[in-house]
Each structure stands twice: as C-alpha cells, then as structure tokens.
C-alpha cells in the first residue's frame, strides 16, 4: 500500500489554509458545519432560519457548478500562483465530493454576496464551504 492510501483522510478544513476565492475582492474560503435535523434538499426558508437572514436579504439557490467554474479552469495566461490555486481547488472539490452528499449552493446578498456550498456528511450534520464574492459590475 502506498503512503497516500494508508494516510488518514485529510479534513476539508486543512485544505483551506491561505485559499482565496477570486472575485473583485479575493476572499478566504472557510469550512462551516451545522448540527441541524433538516432533510435534503434544503429550502431557502431553512437557509434563512439557519443563518438568521432577514426577509429583505436576497437569497437564491444556484447550481453547484457556479461555485467551481471560476476556480477549476487553467487559462493560458495563468502564472504559477494561479495554476497552484486551480490545483488546490481541484483537490478541494474532490475532497468535498468524497465526504459531503446532497450538495446545494446558496447565494445570499447582491453585489457583496455570501456563497454557501452545503451538504450532508455521513454523520448527518450539514457542512460545507463559505466565501464572499464581490461583483459591482
């Protein structure tokens, strides 16, 4: 057995050190976990309750691919730093897909919006990734 096969699974949070999500303001990606008893799929109402979001705040569910698309493609003009970021997000995506099922992506806010990529872990807890995206155009 190779060392990679015998190593314990790396927690998602360990993959997030100094990892920033690109937008008009590069923001850190953080791991979140909630002990709640919601059955999938999550509704926008449940997200509002869980995160204490007021009714006037815009909330929508969007396809999970929207989260990964800007960070999974290597462009020809990328320098080493951008290529490393893409590789790290690829590793993160693979890990998230291994340990979190029933994934859903929620956008909370407009020009400055929180993205929550949430799903269920094998222990039944909801967990995932959170970041802020800024788009003023």
TrEMBL record:
InterPro entries: NucleaseA_inhib-like (IPR012489), NucleaseA_inhib-like_sf (IPR036587). This is Nuclease. It comes from Larkinella rosea.
């Amino acid at each position: 057995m190779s060392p990679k096969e015998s190593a314990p699974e790396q927690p998602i949070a360990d993959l997030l050190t100094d990892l920033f999500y690109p937008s008009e303001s590069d923001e850190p990606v953080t791991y979140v976990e909630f002990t709640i008893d919601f059955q999938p799929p999550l509704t926008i109402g449940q997200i509002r309750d869980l995160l204490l979001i007021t009714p006037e705040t815009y909330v929508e569910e969007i396809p999970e691919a929207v989260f990964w698309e800007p960070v999974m493609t290597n462009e020809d003009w990328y320098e080493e730093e951008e290529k490393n970021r893409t590789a790290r997000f690829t590793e993160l995506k693979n890990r998230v897909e291994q340990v979190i099922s029933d994934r859903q992506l929620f956008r909370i806010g407009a020009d400055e919006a929180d993205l929550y990529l949430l799903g269920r872990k094998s222990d039944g807890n909801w967990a995932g990734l959170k970041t802020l995206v800024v788009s003023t155009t």
